[in-house]
Amino acid sequence: MHPYLRATFWILLFLLLVQAPLFVLLLGPKPAGDGFWFDLSLALGFAVTAMMAIMFLLTARFQRATAPFGIDLVYYFHRLASIGAFAFATLHPLLLFHEEPGLLRVILAGTLPLHLWTGLVSWVAMAALMISSLWRKPLRIHYDAWRVVHVLLALTALLLAVAHIVAVGHYSATPWKTWLWLGIALSCVAVVIRVRLIKPVQLLRRPWRVTRVIKERGSSWTLELRPEGHGGFRYLPGQFAWLTLRSSPFAMREHPFSISSSADTPGVISFTIKELGDFTNRIGEIQAGEKAWIDGPYGTFSVDISRAPGYVFVAGGVGIAPIMSMLRTLAERGDLRPLLLFYAYHTWERVTFREELEALCQRLNLDIVYVLSEPPADWQGERGLLRDEVFARHLPDDRAVRECFICGPTPMIAVAETALARQGIPPTHIHSEIFDLV
Q1: Residues 101 and 160 occupy one common structural domain
Q2: Same domain (yes/no): 416, 355
Q3: Structure confidence by residue, pLDDT tens digits, 331-348
Q4: Which residues does the UniProt record annotate as the domain FAD-binding FR-type (predicted)?
């Protein structure tokens, strides 16, 4: 099936799953109408609960479902959809308070019946979920702790929302409708069991071993790993995986990193990781011989998926990692299609893979445009930041037929996407790897 058809299928399936409970609840006996705003409030409540349930599926890493989009885009959609769901969850009681002011007085008085208590605590759990996720870094919440809390809050919000629907009984009073919502809740629990119990068991049976730790320029480190007791897995150049080090797969301390090694080198996987966050600040302490677990591969950021007569790459900082995987793979294949790399960094001394990139120019039909924001005094190349004029000066005449890959900090991605489109590259030819999933 064509990727666009598969993407359309999954989008329609998402919309169907969100709306299906609303139509199912209209079957059979229905309560007397209480007015448009009252029914709209109930519809929002049902829709929010369905959306929360689907969020569990979106983040379960089902490769067949995420393949048309790339799991980084699925996670980004998960974030936006969660914001929308929380807005609906907030509108749900506000509309009820407008129609029945007595409900607000009951809540303020603190004399909550069960059906209101479950709804209120579900909303509080959702609010805590949103605040801890959107402002995790300003609040200095450790990534590993946040992941555990995130799952617990999500389960609490969903299970209490289902309990709220069942306790209210409006449009869901018949037994089979009650079991519908209980089935939705149980299916989400099953997804959590699969992700947090079954998959870790599978990973335990397929360990990896760190064979080399290489210090790179730009406060980055390359970890080389080999499979232990199994054949590893095949991946496409540019894909990424979740890596677990110094912990069990059950501990929820896995982190997503781009694969930087050639996809055509069997039995070895390398990750190039910069000292940036809670976990990566100590990545240089990893020693050869340590055991690891890898869940992957994921992503659609690859020249093997987006084939073209030539490519343009745009990297910022350690965003060069997946691009190095593609360049190394193309070099091993003897591929001589024209390649152009824009590589933005602060200083020349910190440019990661600087020497290897120069060597790759001898093996590939590769041109590199370095863009330094803090160049040395004798620098003859591009200065400042990636701007329209930088792309205008260096993009080839056949730019419209080339596929473009961008990876780096989110602000740089936004600038590069806009600039490339202005230079005549079709938006369908521009592919970005979202650098920060959370």
Answers
A1: yes
A2: yes
A3: 999 999 999 999 999 999
A4: 203-304
Give residue for tokens 């994921």.
Answer: 298
Instruction: Show the tokens assigned to 292.
Output: 């690891």
Q: Are residues 292 and 343 in the same domain?
A: no
Q: Which of 243, 267, 298 is the last residue of a domain?
A: 298
At residue 4, the pLDDT reads 60
408 in any annotated domain: yes
Boundary of a domain, candidates 265, 298, 331: 298
Task: Give the integer Cα–Cα distance in Å for 392 and 399.
Answer: 10
pLDDT for residue 5:
66
Which residue is it, tokens 């005549």?
Answer: 424
How far apart are the C-alpha atoms of 340 and 416, rounded to whole Å? 14
Task: Report yes or no on whether pTM surpasses 0.90.
Answer: no
Q: Is residue 137 part of a domain?
A: yes
Question: Do 153 and 259 belong together in one domain?
Answer: no
Residues of the chain with pLDDT under 50: 1-2
Give the per-residue pLDDT at 435: 59
- Note the pLDDT of residue 1: 44
